[in-house]
């Protein structure tokens, strides 16, 4: 169950990163509120997952889900630039996440 909590925590990290961008430096109320609520949920679920997962594993996978997810959202929703080097970097992050999962009992 800890892995499910960790996955959902990572998804909420993507939400808060996106809405933080939309908040324009916390000057827009709606996106700011969503950012803060998503942060609380994300951190809370990460804390629950850390009850049974090692710190290094949980934190690495949480940040990795957020990083790669924000990268994908940036490209697909915000029309951010995509190039081979950025894609390779994202693939390397995902590879590291898979290796971290496989290395954890």
Automatic annotation (TrEMBL):
Keywords: Cell membrane, Membrane, Transmembrane, Transmembrane helix, Transport. The chain crosses the membrane at residues 33-50, 57-78, 84-103. Belongs to the drug/metabolite transporter (DMT) superfamily. Small multidrug resistance (SMR) (TC 2.A.7.1) family. Gdx/SugE subfamily. Its main location: membrane. It is a multi-pass membrane protein. Pfam families: Multi_Drug_Res. This is Guanidinium exporter. It is found in: Cell membrane.
């Amino acid at each position: 169950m800890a892995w499910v909590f960790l996955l959902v925590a990572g998804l909420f990290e993507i939400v808060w990163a996106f809405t933080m961008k939309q908040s324009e430096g916390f000057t827009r109320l709606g996106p700011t509120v969503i950012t803060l609520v998503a942060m609380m949920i994300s951190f809370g679920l990460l804390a629950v997952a850390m009850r049974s997962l090692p710190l290094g594993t949980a934190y690495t996978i949480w940040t990795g889900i957020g990083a790669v997810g924000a990268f994908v959202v940036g490209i697909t929703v915000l029309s951010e630039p995509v190039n081979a080097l950025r894609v390779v970097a994202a693939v390397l992050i995902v590879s590291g996440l898979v290796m971290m999962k496989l290395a954890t009992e």
